[in-house]
Write a structure and sequence with these properties.
Elements lengths: L3 E7 L6 H12 L3 E4 L4 H11 L8 H22 L5 E5 L3 H5 L1 H13 L2 E9 L2 H11 L5 H5 L1 H5 L8 H8 L3 E5 L3
Parallel strand pairs: 1-3, 1-4, 2-3, 4-5
Helix pairs in contact: 5-9
């Protein structure tokens, strides 16, 4: 039986995940494509029901909403693989790719379903990220831009090479999108 594939395109905000995801999907052809931003209505609903301010950088989001959001998008990709060979997920996975226990668990879960995991990590210089955030003028970037120096200290832009060595066995692809 041919192994199915899930490609995670991950990386910090404004590092080119959308662009790279679209290029990969176009090159591969028939791909089920999932963008975490397509879940924004459900995420915002979760904030509203809880009475919390919509803030995808908040501790509330990270602890209560994000795990469900990520597990949902993975399940959707797995379901799509019933009908195609490749699913691509475009989502930051910032903490997840550095959590080797999480990634080992995900890899094992996928392996049990005959699915290979590939990760594409996008990164750019903080100057380029700042310029892109200013240009796209998205509400989700408002706090980041207003508190730029504080924000960039919280983001690790470096590629997760430990993930490649300890989990993925050379299925990590790193792309510098600064140019």
């Amino acid at each position: 039986m041919k192994r199915k594939k899930i490609v995670l395109v991950a990386g910090p905000p404004a590092t080119g995940k959308n662009y790279i995801s679209e290029k990969i999907a176009d090159a591969l052809g028939h791909v089920a494509y999932f963008d975490k931003d397509d879940l924004v209505d459900l995420v915002n609903c979760s904030f509203n029901i809880s009475g919390k301010e919509v803030n995808r950088d908040s501790e509330f989001y990270i602890k209560n909403i994000r795990p469900a959001e990520y597990s949902t998008i993975i399940r959707l990709a797995e379901s799509a693989l019933l009908f195609t060979d490749v699913a691509l997920i475009n989502a930051p996975f910032l903490g997840e790719v550095r959590d080797l226990e999480y990634m080992n668990s995900l890899k094992a879960q996928l392996n049990n379903n005959n699915i290979q995991l590939f990760v594409v990590w996008t990164y750019a210089t903080t100057q380029v990220v700042h310029e892109r955030m200013l240009k796209r003028n998205a509400s989700r970037d408002k706090w980041k831009l207003e508190n730029w120096d504080e924000y960039v200290k919280t983001v690790d832009y470096s590629p997760p090479f430990d993930l490649n060595k300890k989990v993925l066995n050379n299925k990590l692809f790193v792309i510098d999108t600064s140019t």
